[in-house]
Amino acid sequence: MSNDARRALVTGASGGIGKAIAEHLLARGWRVHGLDVAVPTIDHAAFESARVDLADRGAVAEAAANLRHVDALVHAAGVLKVGALGQLDHDAGALMWRLHVECASILADAIVPAMAQRGFGRVIFIGSRVAQGMPGRAQYAATKAALVALARSWAAELAAQHVTVNVISPAATQTAMLADPARAAASPRVPPIGRFIEPEEIAALTAFLLSPAAVAITGQDIAICGGASLPK
After folding, report:
1. What is the pTM assigned to this prediction?
2. For 140-162, what is the mean pLDDT?
3. How far is Cα 193 from Cα 205, in angstroms, rounded to an integer?
4. In this predicted model, what pLDDT tens digit does every residue of 2-28 receive, in sequence order?
5. CB burial class (10 A; 0-12, 13-18, 19+) of residue 114?
6. Tens-place pLDDT, residues 77-118
7. Is 77 exposed, middle or buried (0-12, 13-18, 19+ CB in 10 A)?
8. What does the pLDDT average to over 145-162?
9. Could you say which of 47, 140, 154, 196 is catalytic?
């Protein structure tokens, strides 16, 4: 591994989609810095990590101040809280906004301008098919839809500097989140391919979007949905 290897910041790197992305990039020669509130679960010479509460504005800003050298920002950390109208948990809604949207904004604001100055950068937000709306998941959907708006806006600002900003929106993915008892009233839907999306499939798409070959892809919300978005 050379000292000039590309460097990526991956949030949520201790588990699920974030961990799959971090491991995929490490296997391809990237240096990866992980941010997560959980204990690190990756042991690799090119992996560094910090335990950070990504829903804490001050903690995120402090972490971001030391990461302006990265070439890629992948915001994969997330949490799903469900609730029907009339029974909404507003604290849960605020948590999802801080974790999904405010964290993305703070990190990008601190890190991406340096990418633009260098003339290369990649930003990927892990969104969700739920952003298009789903019963019982309005608050979650709203935060994921906001990520698309951020990505399209920043993509327009940064295209001339060869910095791309995209969203990957998976259908239900085979992670620990699927087993959360809190989701019992809003069970995940199996995509038409007959199984849930695998985190490694999202990681592979992420790696391509981070590559020089993907410089012409920006401002996009890319579904990896196993056919869930197809007309019925």
Report:
1. 0.92
2. 98
3. 18
4. 446 899 999 999 999 999 999 999 999
5. middle
6. 999 999 999 999 999 999 999 999 999 999 999 999 999 999
7. buried
8. 98
9. 140
19 catalytic? Reply is no
- Kindly write down the DSSP assignment for every residue of 6-73, as one continuous string: -EEEEETTTSHHHHHHHHHHHHTT-EEEEEESSPP----TTEEEEE--TT-HHHHHHHHTT-TT-SEE
Instruction: Give me 56's structure tokens.
Output: 């804490």
d(CA 153, CA 108): 12
Which residue in the block uniquely carries the two structure tokens 């009233």? 185
Kindly list the distances between the CA atom of residue 72 and the CA atoms of 91, 109, 184, in Å, as whole numbers in the listed order. 31, 13, 36
Strands 7-11, 72-75: parallel, antiparallel or unpaired by DSSP?
A: parallel
- Residues forming beta bridges with residue 126, ordered by sequence position: 168
Which of 14, 115, 27, 126 minimizes the C-alpha distance to 70? 115
